[in-house]
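For homework, think about our next protein:
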Amino acid sequence: MFSANIFTLYPEIFPGALGHGIYQRASEKKIWELNVKNIRDYAYDKHATVDDKPFGGGSGMVLKAEVLNECLEKNSNDYKTYYLSPRGKVFNQELANEFSKLKGINLLCGHFEGVDQRVLDHRNIDEISVGDYVLSGGESAAVVVLDAVIRLLPGVLGNENSTKEESFNNHLLEYPQYTQPRKWRDLEVPEVLLSGNHGEIKDWRLNQSQSITQRLRPDLWTKHCNKSNKN
C-alpha cells in the first residue's frame, strides 16, 4: 500500500478531490492511504503558536523550527520528505513516475512566508514546486502531486495501458480525442479514426502529438528530439 503523509496547518482541506472517484475506490481497495498531521497540534504554548516574524525584517510570518520539527519527529517514518515550495524543483511526469514506485512520501505544506530553513537543512528535506507561481499554501500543491502519483499506482485505473499514451510520455503532448456523434455542428471526426486500420490510426495520432507539441510546447519538442536522436 502506498502511504501519502501530509503535514499541514489545515488538515480539514483533505482529502478534498482525493476523496472521490477513482482515488476513493483505490483507497477502499487498500491501494493507497492518506495520513494527515496537524502541525499546530505540536505547538508548546497555550496559544498554540506556530509562527513568528522573520529575522532581518520583512512581511509575513515564518513557521517555527521547533514546532515543525516536533511534528515531523513524532510522526517519523522511512519515507522521504518533500517541502512544497515555489523555489523547488519543478514537479513533472518523470517525478510522478518516480514517486509512484516508492512505498510512500511525506509532503510538508508551508504557509505564510514559508518555514524556518534550519528544519529543511537539519532533516535533509528536498523542495518541489508545481509551477512558477505562488500559492497561499502548499495544500493545493500537495493535492496536485498526489493526484498525479496515485493514478499511476497499479490497480487505480481501469485500463493500465491508458497511462502509456498520455501527455508528457516521451515528451509529447496527447493527440486529439473524439467520440459520438460522428458529426457535431458541421464538424466531423477525422476519417482515419473511423477506418479500422490500427496502423494508420497509430501513425495519425503520433503525427498529431508531434505537431501539437512542436506548436504549443517547443521546450518539450526539443527534449523529444534530443531523446529520439540519442536512441
